[in-house]
Amino acid sequence: MVKEGTITSLDHFFSNSLRIQDVEVVDILAPNLEESVLDVGRVQRQTDAGRKTIFRATSAVGNHNGLVGLGESRAVGVGTAIRASIANAKLNIKPIKRGCGSWECTCGDPHSVPFLVEGKTASVRVRLIPAPKGLGLVIGDAAKTVLRLAGIKDVWSRTQGETRTTPNFCKATFLSLQKTHHVVHPYELSRKT
């Protein structure tokens, strides 16, 4: 349907709750995605023949304008794991809402999260709080990359748990960003009708 031209944007997938099953669909409909490798680590497993080492890679993609995806993959080689994690991030791409939700700022530009959101993965809990324009990203480095790829420029954060575990920290940040899209503001309802 994408090749035929019936589907011309990713919004069709998100509004109809369709699952993206091919990476090429994302490459065609969102060609300006930026990719970033967040973490590469070794995972060892004991077998009868000895230790078996594989690599785990975590990557993020985004267009700096409300689309962000996070993916993780494991493989025997580092390059294979990175390529597979980028492909998984493209398949897991989600829209997010941006806004000016801080009481200290009344600019109206979409530079922060519209309201307080929270995400949790394993022991890591991330709470994103709207911030005034010009503050920057007050959060750890791994989550800063995910927020920049999503197009968030200013945010306060409150984290709990083992945030040094980069994959869990990034997943919790990604889950909190996803929650911005679950709430529909009354203004958006009036625009649709």
Brief summary:
The chain has 6 helices and 7 strands. The chain has 193 residues and is of the alpha+beta class.
Any overview of this molecule?
The mean pLDDT is 89. With 193 residues, this protein is an alpha+beta fold. It has a 4-stranded antiparallel beta sheet with strand order 1-2-3-4. A 3-stranded antiparallel beta sheet has the order 5-6-7. The chain folds into 2 domains: 11-95, Double Stranded RNA Binding Domain; 97-193, Ribosomal Protein S5, domain 2, CATH 3.30.230. 29% of the residues lie in helices and 29% in strands. It is globular and about 65 Å long. Helix 4 runs parallel beside helix 5.
Topology:
Elements: H1 11-15, H2 23-29, E1 34-47, E2 50-62, E3 67-75, H3 78-91, E4 94-95, E5 117-121, E6 124-130, H4 141-150, E7 155-160, H5 166-178, H6 186-192
Antiparallel strand pairs: 1-2, 2-3, 3-4, 5-6, 6-7
